[in-house]
Amino acid sequence: MIFRNVPRSLLRVLGALFLCAVLAGAAGCGGKPARPPAASAGTGATAGARDVPGWARGMAVVRADALPQQAREVLALIDKGGPYAYRQDGTVFGNFEKVLPKQKRGYYHEFTVRTPGERDRGARRIVTGGGGEFYYTDDHYQTFRAVLR
């Protein structure tokens, strides 16, 4: 046998790691998913498939009224056209992380959502799309939820 001179305790650990790697896709094995589950709301109600517009299908969603108060205030400012608290608000969002659907440069714009206790802009943003889409991130563009209004 190949593993004749390997201590049994090491074989058990290696076997457990191998089993965890094999089952990682199905059971998670404690790992963090790369993207949130589709149609999960996180901080809001789960929308049924018929309630979700085409641009939001297949991604996590959140109802606007379930967003933090600061995000709802930014949505109201976007609707009014400003004024915005940060000079970067309304600038082009490059989608370099490629988490949002691929579009031509200039399609997406970002707006800062103030985070209480943060001295700088923090990690929270609303990103708008040229087709009327709204997205919310609270982890600086790593994940997004489609905002249902």
TrEMBL record:
EC category: hydrolase
SUPFAM superfamilies: Microbial ribonucleases
Any Pfam family hit: Ribonuclease
InterPro entries for this protein: N1-like (IPR000026), Ribonuclease/ribotoxin (IPR016191)
Keyword RNA-binding in record: no
This enzyme's EC code(s): 3.1.27.3
Molecular function GO terms recorded: hydrolase activity; RNA binding; RNA endonuclease activity
UniProt keywords, alphabetically: Hydrolase, Nuclease
Annotated protein name in UniProt: Guanyl-specific ribonuclease St
